[in-house]
Each structure stands twice: as C-alpha cells, then as structure tokens.
Amino acid sequence: MVRQLLAALGPLQSLPGKIDAIASSAQRAVPLAQSTLTIAQQTLSTGKTALDVAYSTLDTLRQSRDIQAQQLDVTRQTLEQTREINAKFPGAGVFPTGSPATTPSAVAKTLPR
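Above: the chain's sequence. Below: its structure in token form.
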C-alpha cells in the first residue's frame, strides 16, 4: 500500500518544475504582449486620425454640394432672365442662349476668315 501511495504521489514531485516552466513561459510572453498592445494602440490612433480625415472630407464634400446647388440655382435664374430679355427683342436676342461652340470644327466656323 505504501508503494501504491508513493507511485500515486510521484507526479507531484515533477510539479515544481512544471510550475517553473509555466512561470518562465509567462514571463517571456509579457514583453510580446506589451509589444502587441503598443502596436494595437498605434493602429487605433492611426485609424482614429483616418476617421477624422474622412469626416472632414465628407463635410467638405457636403459643403461643395451645397455651393454647387446654389450655383446651379443662380445659373438657372440667370438663364431665365436672359430668355426674358431676349424675348423683348426681335431676332437673335441680345444674349445668345444656345450651346457654346466647344468642338474644334464649331470653333473654326466662328473664326473670321
């Protein structure tokens, strides 16, 4: 019975060595975990900066859209006023409202020879 008891307690003799190995592994893992945490914090900081830039860009785009809408409204009003002025004069009108000559051949036709 004593032999059986000693045999059963045998694995306990190697327990301190196993605990030391686990503690040593944990101590070696701490710097790696700290390094990983530092990198994660830097990544988060960069991500926050990128998000701030994205929000700023979105705000700028919204402002640009609003300005363009205002410009379009002014252009429509100007065109309507030009049509009203032209309607008061016979012929081609004071201010032509047709499409501008933008192709090379259309521009060439408007040049004096």
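The mean pLDDT is 83.
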